[in-house]
Prior knowledge:
This protein has six helices and twelve strands. It is of the alpha+beta class. It has two domains: 10-23 and 46-173, no CATH class; 176-275, Cysteine proteinases (Cathepsin B, Chain A, Alpha-Beta Complex), CATH 3.90.70. Strands 1-7-12-8-9-10-11 form a seven-stranded antiparallel beta sheet. A three-stranded antiparallel beta sheet has the order 2-3-4, with helices on one face. The chain has a two-stranded antiparallel sheet with strand order 5-6. α1 packs across α4. The longest helix has 13 residues, at 65-77. The radius of gyration is 19 Å and the shape is elongated. Mean pLDDT is 83; it is low at 1-41.
Amino acid sequence: xxxxxxxxVISVLGLFATVFGLTGxxxxxxxxxxxxxxxxxxxxxxxxxxxxxxxxxxxxxxxxEWFLVAAATLVNWDSQKIKDRxxxxxxxxxxxxxxxxxxxxxxxxxxxxxxxxxxxxxSITADYSGSNQYWWIAALEDxxxxxxxxxxxxxxKDGFTDGDSHFAYQMLTGEEADLYETDRxxxxxxxxxxxxxxxxxxxxxxxxxxxxxxxxDGLRKSTWYxxxxxxxxxxxxxxxxxxxxxxxxYDAKEGKEFYLGFEDIQDDIAWYSKPKYLMPEPYVDPxxxxx
Length: 291
């Protein structure tokens, strides 16, 4: 039996990787944030290439996989929702796509309002997430740590702590998300959990493993993963399976996509989060669409 414990909660963003900053800390930098003694200089520092992508994210020093997977699944579905968080970009005089500073707006759950923080590239150390030179995910991390607003759940005075991805979703979108716990010993919930995983193509779905996932599946214990898509499985009117399901996941620690068979992963899912309401289809400018 699939036991669903429903929590009406609000989310926060999510993301990770290695972003390198310029020397010299900014007065806007988060106080008491751990930083490597040496900060590498990097010449080019665009915020993103055309649009933010989940491939730009890779966890580094912060304990924030819950935040990163939420950001990755959100941008995988609708990158505009991430782009909407940024404004007032200050670009370099030498290169127009190099962003020296930007304003980031995130939802404060405790105060129930949007808050803005100015983030300077010079304050981004090597502890921040980012798999390459695009630093939008690091800017989100910096703003999230300074805004907080989660009642100590996932972010405290020292920065990121262990949290859940529905908090991140709320922080990134201002929209509600729900957290569910599953009874992994049940045999009758397969249809239901598959439908949840399929929603990843039109929503932001994340899963968390329990304390003892199957080692052969390569999943880490008590870890949040993003669902990028699930395909290949259907059920007939009597609940019989048709086909073999494949689930494509995002691993924030590795900054990579990988896949598992649905039969392998279903018993490893201890928790999952998703928006309270399905997102509308992303807007596509007809002037840029193919005929």
